[in-house]
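User: quick one - fold this with iron/sulfur cluster bound?
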Amino acid sequence: MQATNTSNPAYFHKVVDCQWACPAHTPVPEYIRLIGQGRYSDAYMVNWVSNVFPGILGRTCDRPCEPACRRGRVEENNRTQAEPVAICRLKRVAADHKDDVSARMPTIAPFNGKRIACVGAGPSSLTVARDLAPLGYEVTVFDSEAKAGGFMRSQIPRFRLPESVIDEETGYILNMGVRFRGGERVSSMRALLAQNFDAVFVGCGAPRGRELDVPGRQDAAAHIHIGIEWLANVSFGHITSVGERVIVLGGGNTAMDCCRSARRLGGKDVKVVVRSGFEEMKASPWEKEDAQHEGIPILNYHVPKSVEHLNGKLTGMTFEIVRAEYDAKGRRSLIPTGEPDVLLECDTVLVAIGQENAFPWIEPDCGIAFDTWGLPVLGEGTFQSTLPKVFFGGDAAYGPKNIITAVAHGHEAAVSIDRLLNGEDVTHRPPPRTHLLSQKMGIHEWSYHNDVSNDTRFAVPWAKADVALSSIKLEVELGFDAATAFKEASRCLNCDVQTVFNRGTCIECDACMDICPMDCISFTTNGDEAELRTRLKAPAQHTAQAMYVSAELKTGRILVKDEDVCLHCGLCAERCPTGAWDMQKFLLNTTQAGPHCRDSKPKPSTSAAKETA
Ligand SMILES: Cc1cc2nc3c(=O)[nH]c(=O)nc-3n(C[C@H](O)[C@H](O)[C@H](O)COP(=O)(O)OP(=O)(O)OC[C@H]3O[C@@H](n4cnc5c(N)ncnc54)[C@H](O)[C@@H]3O)c2cc1C
Ligand code: SF4
Ligand code: SF4
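Assistant: Sure. Structure tokens for the protein plus iron/sulfur cluster:
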């Protein structure tokens, strides 16, 4: 196997599993350490730079970082119950416990003569505004709704995300001199382009809910609602009650928000009915758990057949019972079981079976190409459309996803816009800035807490069920208090503190190999990767995580370190008599719009030059 090239920052970045998995590459261990030290405002600002909405995301993020978290893998080796660090809930701690951070927001450069239009005030557009306004761009954000926030405000129910948090975090951005034109729907791209904006960012989301097409649907239309429209009406106070018996169709997060909202608006018999099996439902596991915790049953393998009504008054729905069958390629078919159809009585049906993109306001002949699925044709990683000064991001770019992905798109689109308007090639994506710094304070002392905590994940406290269900606005999750936050933060393994090996000073005494509690380190002969993985001190089974492989040592052996289950405890470095191992903190800041993303300004450090991811 080739010796590892650690000058490629992607190598060390990948070891920080949570940061690698986060679409916005938030430096997770850095902010978790700050929370452990009670430095909540600092933790908030570290977050704010990359994920922009720490208070919102600390309550709602889809958390792709958590399944990746090393703590889950390490505990799996030691316990039956593997639990990642509660990364998302710790983010909320920073937001809830911080001081006033308004003075820490960026200063705004004088107007640079360039004007940007953003269509929609969701997280993607607001991220573009957050990155470009401080640079002196005049950013105008249009939204058909009166207030900013997009789906964060109109879709996510208040019992999961209080309005005050949305106001605060959208406010930080609008206060940067952004022109917000609320209540103004953009009805023509051509007319918008005629206003001579230097660039246009389309962050209008995926605002159309999929329709239910079964007999009786139109006859009982008054009692059947499209989930995302119904949630927006609930959010804005236009709908304040619901029938007692409610059927929610669909297995995604929208369905979970619909059923939990219906419970709070007076629904007594609320059911979720899904075509698929429980495991295949698209909703996040915790959303399903939360709905079930509130006494909402989920009926699987029921395919809607017809809507039943009496002269237009909804009485129920009939479902066919199916089972799943998989072919040799793993493709699923739903096969009727032959059991009798099931009639479920109801007064209201909420349809949450998916979302679609729609751009009725973009004229077909204005130069923006769309693919066969109706999505814009975009440059990979640049978010540039076929009309060079128009960019897309968030759900409008690649279909419905989540807030943190919309934020990540916003950052990348802002880089593209900044480069375009500085006369530079948008396809050249500048590398991130990286930094490695030794944490050594003494022979057995490090500037981070390396004593691995044995605690299992702490549960977030909830409001009492009867109180929570009595109000659509009362927040259900209460968040960690400072003491629990400290203990949960202590579960983090500081994966950004890297084990850095210096082959030149290694005397091959094998002391590091002997002391490592996880058997991460092996001195052995070289071989090809698949074979080498099997004959280490402990087999390296998780191929998604790299192994560090040194160049040949004096005895002809090599040193191999499996990065997968390392605890970053530093015992190898404490034990090494020659200091061949060091624990070095790796900081990676993604390149954002501004001088660092331009060719015409000083380049980032050379160690970052080979970043590929
Ligand atoms: C019910 C529901 C619950 C969700 N829960 C979560 C969650 O818990 N966590 C999570 O991460 N994600 C969640 N999502 C997904 C998340 O909200 C979206 O992925 C995200 O908001 C997309 O951001 P965006 O920037 O693309 O635009 P959006 O947030 O969709 O905002 C687009 C904005 O554009 C405006 N607009 C559209 N067309 C025009 C026009 N022509 N002129 C002017 N304005 C226009 C709309 O009014 C809207 O305000 C949820 C989605 C739904 C439907
Ligand atoms: S243990 Fe900490 S640093 Fe490591 S992946 Fe989990 S949250 Fe990230
Ligand atoms: S830091 Fe060193 S001793 Fe600790 S688990 Fe990792 S390789 Fe083993």
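One thing worth noting: The pocket of iron/sulfur cluster (ligand 3) is lined by residues 499, 516-518, 520-521, 561, 566-572 (CB under 6 Å).
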